[in-house]
Request: fold
Amino acid sequence: MVNGSGNRIKSLKDSSPKKKGNAFLITNLRNIRYMTGFTGSNGALLISGAGDFFFTDFRYKEQSAEEVKSCEVVISKKDFFGFIIKFINKLNLWKILLEDTIQYKDYARVSKHFTVSTTTDLVENLRSIKDQDELKLIKEAIRRAESAFTSVKAFIKPGITERAIANRMEEKLKQEGTEAIPFDTIVASGKRSALPHARPSEKKLQRGDLVVVDWGAECGGYFSDMTRTLLINGEGLDKKREIYDIVLRANSMATRKVKTGLTGAEIDDAARGSIRSAGYGEYFGHGTGHGVGLDVHEKPYISATATKLTLSSGMVFTIEPGIYIPGLGGVRIEDMVVVSGEGTGEKMTTLPEELETIW
Ligand SMILES: [Mn+2]
Reply:
């Protein structure tokens, strides 16, 4: 779907100084999608006082004509970057701003012909604030994810392999309308649940296992990301229940803390401090959350080092504290939160968070 990208080139131009001869060349495909609506796999966007141009190749001639409305589409000849360099030369532009994520070989070619400088996160910062159209797509991505989980849950029982659950999940995500699964679904059970990024294996679920399921869906290019941890009924569950309660409390402490003007580090500290004071600080080794949008991991990052990141209305990110104890297992509870117009955190994910025990 072509989202509200129509005004984004204009607002980027309005917010940056316009000097003669200067241009900004955007090469990150997700940033291009955000700025133009283009969903293909090859493109570059030039924004300048001499005009705005979207470059792609002949494979995307029809698609780009359909998707890109906010600037002129130019179909390149072979040698994509050579073509763009010639084109920029003709426009009499000489100072080119590049994204620092550009491939080095492309950077080297452009810098042979022009004075180049690089920028970090210019478009990524704009992307961290979602508009109403984007929020709708993210909400639908969450609905698809939650609906898939709800139907897969009936399938989770002792004797089923992690891989079979992950496969079933991905099938359901596709049935719900997800075109691009944002990341491989994680299903990790028993001791393996203590590995935060475990890949689903042939291990069968057993009595007493904690089962971490971390999955995402997509809608219109926008992703969702969430995690639930289940418990298979069995023996010796006290400590597993205890760490579940601690993680759940940390999740809700961080979620309730969300407020415009606070830093990412302060939100992280709400979760981390809660786990630390329960005595499990050393078992929570990753950040508290990350932005979710056109990328499944994007700005803002909610971590102990995010002292310069200030929360603003429209930011969407995960809150995902966890405790991982080698030999015992792990618990992670991941929700998505939006900073509302009122400036507080509003939970976007809706699946229950209380520990569910499977009999
Ligand atoms: Mn996540």
